[in-house]
Amino acid sequence: MNQHQPPPDHAALDAAKVLLTRLGLSPEDLLTDASPRPPVPTFAQYIPVVAAAVSEGTRRVYSSYWNRLDQAWGYRRLDEPTPTEIKQLVEHTKANVVPRRNARGGRSAGEHLIAALCCLYHHAEHDHLIAPADNPAAKVPKPRRLPSTRRAVADNRLTEINHVAATPATAPPSTASSCACTPKPPAAAAAPSPRAPKTSTPTNA
What we know:
single chain; mainly alpha; DNA polymerase, domain 1; 44% helix; extended
């Protein structure tokens, strides 16, 4: 060993091994020439590729946001936008969202735009078009969701609802027949039938 060479830092070596494992590399990979990475496509070129690879539900949710990306950055390569530019596009999308009665300041639109970008870059990583460390969408936090405007039913109100639901409906008595549990009105007293006059039987003296 060279006397002027410092001793190896075992902690640094262990950290390097962990990093290589997470990246799916081995020490031998560092000694070989890296294979050339395919050219990075533009948004206009890559959006249709991803749209054809996802499920119909995902495509339905993200299609409008991919259209916005195509309009804004269709001519740009996937590795060109910076995290700051993504934040600017998110704020622009939130400010220009169509106002609705239940709109919440465009937060949902901003959240879906970032999710649509993450979907694109996730596929780009798997296709080895960009490295995970170069994913700009992963460095942009999603807008924090506001508290839900839905409120739970109060306990006393819920008790009343359950009581009403459990109480059987009372139907008016039918004219044809009355319920067995319904007391019948007392029957009218029958008029006494007229008695025949008593006839006396003559007795023999």
